[in-house]
Design goal:
Blueprint lengths: L15 H11 L26 E4 L5 H4 L11 E6 L3 H15 L8 E6 L3 H7 L5 E4 L3 H13 L3 E4 L7 H17 L3 E3 L7 H9 L19 E10 L1 E2 L2 E2 L20 H13 L9 E13 L1 H8 L12 E2 L2 E14 L2 E12 L7 E7 L3 E6 L9 E6 L3 H14 L8 E5 L2 E5 L11 H12 L23 H22 L2
Parallel strand pairs: 1-2, 1-4, 2-3, 4-5, 5-6, 7-13
Antiparallel strand pairs: 7-14, 8-9, 10-12, 11-12, 12-13, 14-15, 15-16, 16-18, 17-18
Length: 491
């Protein structure tokens, strides 16, 4: 598909018709892309010492959320390779909205190539440093493999594998990336939710928490539950989901999709920095079940007027079954854990996606709840069997030690528990977490120090690096989710 190179940017894209017209002008822009040998070093290729992003087939809105924030280390010119269609249009609309907003507008300039041969054109030359992959999960693992083999770093939305066959491919990609000093990182955004951070930090205080209790299958020591909604608002607009999102063969079951976040939180909370191995996992039970949608609900959330043929296998009594729910009970290094993922059509009034978390220690128990009474805001509660006066002193000392990391953190007594008072300044929403995980990527690329400041010196001389335990945790979470799904399907 040939076209003339153009320098137009998305600043002119205010309507979908304009988007479609400009995309056609961009189709041949690859002819002007700078050449680079696929076998070159995995360092930074830009002459400006800035990271150059390449977005591949952006079918999920998380691809756009990476660019909701501007970063001094990242070149504002981003190259996009994708097939023609609605997914691409929505991605471009979202980036344009970030550029056009009144508060802290971004200045992204997208160079778009759209055609059926977009993967082949993407692989012809090396067009940047980091490939962002967030879309159809049936294709994602293969995209990751191709990008790693082509010498790119990869920044991928979860899940990077939705079944055991894909896990085998992912494992090989991880091994290759490690051998080449390439970065392969998934977007574990839930680590940046303040209550998750507090649970992890306070569980390291032996006076307050003690040690993790082993628990049992009926009373796990760590529980992570998540409720999501198909109809929701993102970046101030009603989210339009692609039809394939409702197909478990393309999006993945709930256990291997959102379940990735919950499994990650279990590992990160209990064993951060420790190298996990497959033998550390013992799956006790796994189950899956569907959410049932009416045709009208499906049409509303997809902006379609018909159900595609590939979903007819899931239609029963004229309703669509979406296999988005699952529960997994397992042991990790002897600690009993349980995760549960469920999807509903629409959140209750005033609510959004919400979570529940429980962490049992030998001295106290941490619980995070989101309730209607609390306006569905996550709140952190601590219970203990220790005498009230004795425990309050322990809690006061523990909170005092956290002031440097969590300034303004306080507590109060509520009925039979202690509630942490979390300042609004420490709270941030789901969309803001994508900037946080992107800064983690920049640290691993060795262009940003641990405090988020841009590193000094020549970026070409700095070697990207991920700690061994991080690689092991990545492998372990996908091994856990895919093994859990395999067991759930055999029930």
């Amino acid at each position: 598909m040939a076209a003339t190179p153009t320098q137009k940017t998305l600043d002119h894209l205010n309507m979908r018709r304009s988007v479609q017209r400009l995309i056609l002008c961009y189709c041949g822009f690859l002819a002007a892309f700078a050449c680079a040998d696929k076998n070159e070093s995995a360092g930074i290729s830009s002459e400006t010492n800035k990271i150059q992003l390449v977005t591949l087939d952006p079918g999920h809105f998380h691809a756009a959320l990476i660019q909701k924030t501007a970063y001094p280390e990242i070149d504002p010119q981003v190259k996009v390779f994708a097939p023609p269609g609605k997914d691409l249009e929505l991605h471009l609309d979202r980036i344009n909205s970030f550029n056009q907003r009144k508060l802290a507008p971004t200045d992204w300039a997208l160079k778009v190539y759209q055609a059926d041969d977009f993967v082949a054109r993407f692989l012809e030359k090396k067009h940047g440093d980091v490939v962002v992959v967030s879309g159809n999960n049936a294709r994602k693992t293969h995209y990751i493999q191709q990008a790693i083999e082509a010498g790119y770093h990869v920044f991928a939305d979860k899940p990077m594998a939705i079944n055991s066959e894909q896990f085998d491919v992912l494992q090989k990609s991880i091994e290759l990336a490690r051998a080449r000093n390439q970065i392969l990182l998934d977007m574990m955004t839930e680590r940046f939710e303040i209550t998750n951070r507090l649970q992890k930090a306070l569980s390291q205080d032996p006076q307050l928490f003690g040690t993790i209790a082993p628990g049992n299958a009926d009373s796990p020591s760590i529980i992570k539950e998540s409720v999501h909604h198909f109809y929701k608002q993102v970046a101030g607009n009603t989210l339009v989901r692609p039809a394939w999102f409702f197909d478990e063969l393309q999006e993945g079951d709930g256990l291997v999709d959102v379940g990735t976040h919950l499994v990650d939180l279990v590992q990160w909370t209990l064993f951060d920095g420790e190298a996990l191995q497959f033998k550390d996992l013992n799956i006790i039970e796994a189950i899956r079940w569907p959410t049932v949608l009416t045709r009208q609900q499906f049409y509303r959330v997809t902006a379609r007027d018909a159900i595609p043929d590939y979903l007819t296998k899931n239609i029963e009594n004229d309703k669509l079954k979406v296999f988005s729910n699952g529960e997994l009970s397992y042991q990790l290094r002897g600690v009993h854990a349980r995760i549960k993922v469920s999807w509903e059509y629409q959140a209750p009034e005033g609510a959004s996606d919400y979570h529940y978390s429980l962490l049992r220690g030998t001295k106290s128990q941490f619980e995070v709840r989101q309730t209607a009474a609390g306006n569905y805001r996550p709140e952190f509660y601590i219970t203990t069997r220790l005498p009230k006066e004795q425990f309050e002193k322990i809690l006061r000392d523990a909170i005092g030690k956290q002031q440097h990391t969590f300034p303004g953190l306080a507590y109060r007594r509520v009925e039979n528990a202690w509630q942490l008072i979390i300042p609004d300044e420490l709270r941030s929403g789901h969309e803001a977490h994508f900037a946080e995980v992107t800064r983690t990527l920049l640290q691993y690329l060795n262009v940003t120090d641990t405090k988020g400041q841009k590193s000094t010196g020549d970026s070409k001389s700095r070697v990207p690096s991920i700690p061994d335990a991080v690689w092991q945790h990545m492998l372990m979470r996908y091994y856990t989710t895919t093994q859990g799904l395999s067991q759930a399907k055999t029930r």
